[in-house]
Amino acid sequence: MYALVDCNNFYASCERLFQPRLEGKPVVVLSNNDGCVIARSDEAKAIGIEMGTPAFKIEEVFEQYKVSVFSSNYTLYGDLSDRVMKTLTDFVPKMEVYSIDESFLDMSELIYTDLTKLGIEIRQTIKQNIGIPVSVGIASTKTLAKMANRYAKKKYKKIGVFYAANKELVQEMLAFTQVEDIWGVGRQYASLLKRNGIHTALDVTNIPEEWMRKNMTVVGQRLWNELHGKASVEWEYEAPAKKNICTSRSFGKLTGDKTIIAEAASNYAAACAAKMRKQNSCASSMCVFINTNQHKIEQPQYSRSIVMEFQTPTNLTGEIIAYALRGLDIIYKEGYLFKKVGIIMLGLVPESQRQTSLFDTIDREKNRMVLGTVDKLNKLMGKDVVRMASQGYKRRYKLRAEHLSNRYTTNINEILNVKI
DNA sequence: TCTGGGGTCCTAGGACCC
DNA sequence: TCTGGGGTCCTAGGACCC
Questions:
Q1: What is the pTM of this model?
Q2: Of A106, A275, A345, A359, which is least surrounded by CB within 10 A?
Q3: Residues A146 and A268 in one domain
Q4: 3-state secondary structure at position A330
């Protein structure tokens, strides 16, 4: 048996943890640039605030219902996530951290007989130790565990745990779940299934395997197996190294100024390089892209990207920034207001397996040592104090974040103040 | 004023090789 | 009339995830 543990309304719960007066009140968290709603407390959901709604469209709703609005604070969420995950490891020998707020637990080696009880214990421990509410779904495959988790939230809200312990309970859950709510079924597949008269997860189990294979490729085949209780999704107990690494942001406000765009590109290139060094990878090639705001249809649109190959795979900040700026030179065009620039590092290989080029002119070993020190310093200071010249210090392209909470758990200057 | 950011997997089709 | 065949690698695009 497998469990999926999912933090309820995670980002909203994190914010509320440090402002208990918001308990029972509507809370939302916005994406970068205070763009759209990406997390909602139950009370905010009840008002009818939808996931992904642009904030500017519902400012009146925020006003009317006195919704507490937060900019996203990933430093805080990341730290709380680490604490939740660490606590979960006490319960099972093997687990897979699936996302910032979810983990699959492998219960196949447990001698526990009452898994519902174990689920309740997990929930209580996380609430007690960290203060974040979680739900637990338990079933025989990952896809069913995901479904069980959702079912727990919908049908067993009070205890927050659902264990699909026998055939009847599995059937009940399958019949309850619409196809669009199945893990792995997105908009396109949901519409394909519905056009063919398949509406619930139970319906999916009743169609021939071949139909799924033919119409939804091996993805559909795997899904069909999983719904029949045959585990077909691989486990990743250790997070594998990323194959691509991307850093991109929208600008706080649109800009046509090439120097500002170049400064942002330099910083994103440096961020990519640091992320690669962290996982000991080097990129074989990289991509720079820029685009205008596609939502502003009345303005001239332009978007372009360029892929550049490295002679020798690299994770050196200076080299990557140089390529980024060269790439930007080629794709940048006057006369447009840009929304976003981004850097994608492609074809990542382990640092140790890097093929060196005969014509390499860079002392990579020396660079590596210098950057190792830079990484340590920047980590120690909690921000990038050591930077390349082209990165600048002014951050003229910076994000909007007008409702940012403190980094309560990771920065000594921002810890909670208690008045007595 | 104002619409996130970062990933993975799968397939089809072209390029290229012998 | 008739225009090989099989294999691999790469890329773009689609679909999905949180």
A1: 0.92
A2: A359
A3: no
A4: helix
